[in-house]
């Protein structure tokens, strides 16, 4: 870390490097406060730019920090996970977890830009990449039957060594979410459909304290929602 920091400072003297812990278990007020105070000590100003380099947890913590300091400074997101590149960076939602649940405290704060490179995914563990793809499957369920059919036909190509297919898959999942966000960027009306599977999924994820990936938790949430819907329809006597 010290060697890497020294190399950066040789070229960019006013740069401050902070290594953050990844994952949901680190998205709490304690770490948010610590990061904010460290940046103040480093003389952060309204002209400063924060760069969030990492997964969704790091992006959320840095994004919320950027939104709070001086009522908002600029930041850039460089997501290095499939979930980060195709889902969490797109909605501009920054948050930390509380004692009673996930993402209870946050705000909307958009980055200057997002730099996503699927080359980073070549070293991402397969289970993490698969968990990210689940959000894409959710998008197919809620808004676009044709997209779901594309996923059904192309998911076997999800191979980090096949750069073209990884790029294509990531791009199409990004587009599937952006189509929804364009209609409702704050997810208060039509965009609420993006929460499909998240009501139970967030609860599962928070109770597991980061021991289950976000996408996996959402997959369980979608299954629970489907079972409840089926049971409700049965009780109402509605056909399937």
Please provide a written account of the structure.
The protein is mainly alpha-helical and 240 residues long. The protein has helices at residues 2-11, 29-41, 56-68, 82-88, 126-143, 145-154, 163-183, 198-207, 214-236; strands at residues 49-54, 74-79, 93-96, 105-108. Helix 3 (56-68) links the parallel strand 1 (49-54) and strand 2 (74-79). Helix 2 crosses helix 3 (56-68), helix 5 (126-143) packs antiparallel against helix 6 and helix 8 crosses helix 9. It starts with a helix and ends with a helix.
Taken as a percent bin, the fraction of beta residues is 5-15%
Structural class: mainly alpha
Mean pLDDT: 89
Number of helices: 9
Largest sheet: 2 strands, parallel
SSE pattern, N- to C-terminal: HHEHEHEEHHHHH
Lateral strand order in the biggest sheet: 1-2
Query: Could you tell me how far the N terminus lies from the C terminus, measured between alpha carbons in angstroms?
Result: 57 Å
The radius of gyration is 19 Å
Q: Residue ranges: pLDDT <50 for 5 or more in a row?
A: none
Q: Work out the helicity level.
A: 40-55%
| Total count of strands | 4
Give the overall silhouette. Answer: globular
Feature tags:
240 residues; mainly alpha; two-stranded antiparallel sheet; single chain; two-stranded parallel ribbon
Map the helices and strands:
Blueprint: H1 2-11, H2 29-41, E1 49-54, H3 56-68, E2 74-79, H4 82-88, E3 93-96, E4 105-108, H5 126-143, H6 145-154, H7 163-183, H8 198-207, H9 214-236
Parallel strand pairs: 1-2
Antiparallel strand pairs: 3-4
Helix pairs in contact: 2-3, 4-5, 4-7, 5-6, 5-7, 5-9, 8-9
């Amino acid at each position: 870390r010290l060697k890497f920091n020294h190399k950066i400072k040789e070229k960019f003297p006013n740069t401050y490097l902070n290594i953050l812990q990844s994952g949901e278990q680190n998205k709490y007020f304690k770490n948010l406060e610590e990061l904010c105070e460290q940046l103040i000590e480093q003389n952060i100003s309204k002209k400063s730019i924060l760069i969030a380099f990492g997964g969704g947890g790091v992006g959320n913590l840095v994004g919320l920090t950027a939104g709070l300091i001086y009522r908002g400074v600029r930041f850039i997101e460089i997501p290095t996970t499939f979930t980060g590149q195709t889902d969490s960076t797109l909605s501009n939602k920054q948050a930390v977890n509380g004692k009673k649940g996930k993402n209870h405290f946050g705000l909307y704060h958009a980055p200057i830009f997002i730099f996503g490179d699927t080359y980073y995914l070549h070293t991402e563990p397969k289970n993490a990449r698969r968990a990210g793809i689940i959000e894409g499957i959710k998008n197919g369920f809620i808004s676009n039957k044709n997209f779901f059919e594309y996923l059904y036909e192309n998911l076997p190509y999800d191979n980090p060594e096949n750069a073209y297919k990884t790029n294509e898959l990531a791009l199409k999942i990004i587009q599937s979410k952006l189509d929804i966000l364009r209609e409702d960027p704050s997810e208060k009306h039509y965009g609420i459909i993006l929460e499909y599977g998240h009501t139970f999924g967030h609860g599962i994820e928070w109770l597991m304290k980061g021991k289950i990936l976000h996408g996996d938790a959402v997959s369980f949430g979608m299954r629970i929602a489907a079972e409840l819907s089926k049971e409700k329809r049965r009780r109402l006597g509605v056909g399937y």
